[in-house]
TrEMBL record:
A GO cellular component entry from the record: trans-Golgi network
Identification of the protein by name: C17orf75 isoform 5
InterPro entries, sorted: Njmu-R1
PANTHER family from the UniProt entry: PROTEIN NJMU-R1 (PTHR14416)
Amino acid sequence: MNCEERGLESHIKSYLSSWFEDVVCPIQRVVLLFQEKLTFLLHAALSYTPVEVKESDEKTKRDINRFLSVASLQGLIHEGTMTSLCMAMTEEQHKSVVIDCSSSQPQFCNAGSNRFCEDWMQAFLNGAEGGN
């Protein structure tokens, strides 16, 4: 194995060794923190509603932002479709969803939901209970 291949192997091993902690654990922590209220976070992500997190530590804020990023459709649909979707979404002015983390159970303000988000919230909770 030459020097370049060893460098690449080292980089890949480093990436893979931290992948679970960097990618899976933040989502799992958010699911466990919000439980049934996860439906509000899913709705915000899918409707491109801004989310403001108050009274939270930096790790929790990062976890929430990572969850919002992976739960949104951004990057998964074509630009033209995205433009149409964003125009449709902005016709109805969104207030920011505010998450107050000052108590043991986070409180939501200006949050919405729908049946789709409720069904997926349940899927996330079932996955968390099963350890997935």
